[in-house]
Design brief:
The chain is an all-alpha fold. The protein is built from 13 helices and no strands. The radius of gyration is 21 Å and the shape is globular.
Length: 269
């Protein structure tokens, strides 16, 4: 009896450890740490714009220290991990590992990350947007595959929703920090007024980014990627990733708003 109880105990105790190990592997094959690093680099560029536009370029070392803390890689990575743990079943994790451990999927992630980095160059971004505009409405095979991928994953609406939520949190941070005296109703009205502009801009950026990223892929590889995305497991992964990154961007946006307000208040003293 004692041996049986010990075996049961070992099985129960080992299950969470096994799940944690598989989640670590999934985080690795998805290259989440690398993606977070790109997000951090983008954030530093955005923070420089905020400094110039809202702090007259006077943020200095205090502002930089705040930005560095806001874009903490370990905290952001843990938020993504928690979203994946909460949003994925064992079946979902198995399916994701089976797909993203392949050479083709590794190539896909390489191209996505390279394109994301390249898009930080305004000239590259403009060229990618122009490529989309030139192909929009055409029967170009890559454009059709990218359009299907966006549709399957609801990427446009999810990104628009995320952008509006982030904008709301940024304005809320400004208001809570007394940078502005806008009410909740004022902030909501301002964010909703931006919706169509956000959708148009997001549509161009998203299509341009994906066309740039997937241009080197063989059509059959892209077909397999779309096919995986259409499965329940692919849908679960997409939803969990969006939940994680949307949480990250909401938290970052609010923190940036408060940081701007704090620095502006300090300048006035």
């Amino acid at each position: 009896m004692r041996a049986v109880l010990l075996a049961v105990c070992l099985t129960i105790c080992a299950s969470p450890l096994w799940a944690n190990a598989r989640m670590t592997v999934l985080m690795d094959v998805l290259r989440i740490t690398e993606v977070v690093g790109i997000l951090r680099d983008e954030g530093f560029t955005y923070a420089e714009t905020l400094d110039n536009d809202m702090l007259d370029g006077q943020g200095g070392t205090f502002w930089q220290a705040q930005v560095d803390q806001i874009y903490d890689v370990e905290i952001i990575t843990e938020q993504i991990r928690q979203a994946l743990e909460q949003g994925l079943t064992e079946v979902d994790v198995d399916a994701a590992l089976a797909f993203f451990s392949t050479d083709a999927a590794t190539r896909i992630i390489d191209l996505e990350n390279a394109a994301r980095r390249a898009m930080t160059d305004p000239d590259v971004e403009e060229a990618a947007r122009d490529m989309f505009l030139s192909l929009q409405g055409s029967d170009d095979p890559l454009f059709q595959q990218v359009s299907r991928y966006i549709e399957v994953n609801d990427l446009l609406e999810r990104n628009v929703s995320g952008a509006m939520s982030s904008n709301y949190q940024f304005y809320k941070g400004l208001a809570d920090g007394h940078y502005t005296d806008e009410s909740e109703e004022d902030i909501l009205a301002e964010v909703w007024a931006q919706q169509e502009d956000i959708r148009a801009d997001t549509n161009e950026w998203l299509n341009g980014f994906l066309l740039l990223a997937y241009q080197p892929l063989p059509p059959q590889t892209m077909q397999r990627y779309v096919a995986y995305a259409e499965t329940p497991e692919g849908q679960a992964l997409n939803a969990a990733l969006f939940e994680g990154f949307e949480t990250v961007y909401r938290d970052i946006s609010y923190a940036l708003g408060r940081a701007v307000a704090l620095n502006a208040e300090g300048d006035e003293i």
